[in-house]
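Per reviewer request, we include the raw input and output of the structure prediction for the construct analysed in the revised manuscript.
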Amino acid sequence: MPAARPTPRPPLAERIEDHRDRAWCRDEAVRVTAAADAERFVERVGFAACLSDSRRPGPSLYVAVCGRRDAVMPRHVQHDPEASLTWRLKDDVMRRGRIYYGKLGRGRAMFIAPRLVPHFHALWGVRRSDEASVLGRDARAVLKVLRAEWEMSTADLRTESKVTDGKRFAQALDALQAAMIVVPSEVLYEPRFTYVWTLAVGRFPDQLRKRVAREVALREIARAFLVGAGTTVRGELARVVGLSRADAGLGNRALVADGTAVTTATGVYTLATLAGS
């Protein structure tokens, strides 16, 4: 017998979709067209994906560049002007260094507003005292070189770290990004394409040294998402951020406790200011 298809989620109320249109720049009138726009967008929403489209929940720079709620990434992105603009804006924002950018939980490339960097770090960051037990040998070798040189291109970092196997090197960099230790600081296209890598603490020293309790981090990340989403349905926050459902639930229930949200159904949380409208 064939497996049953998952039950589709019911559509959101139009007032909630309208709220998301305004908050997530899914409207032609407020779409993102420049790096400064992109920075203000991330500051407002707290965190956003880079190149995800309308098929994934949550704020996205690509969707904000398109300025419409039904934006779908085309198959041939190299010929798509909206995808190209998003990529250029990502490079500009990364280069300017005012917004945190890197691959976090489950390999998601994400922008984070500085105010939320301590909260993400409380959940995913690896402190120096824990590096030996958490990071693999390749990641530690790459990190040792970066701590000595501070900034280095991909090719030079591979050579100096002696992690010359491409797959192992990529995994090491992903692990260091996920631990919020290393970030890309620049991308070069000439004479050949390469990223330049640096230590995250060099760009966000105050935020990465600030201690935040785990329960506070969950609550404030949930708050940032709910303020933009208006309503979050079961599993949505977990999927957007890469949290477990249990942790997402803790964050959302904390918002109910402080009066920011109300529970309108099992696993569904709505901003208190929108619940009665």
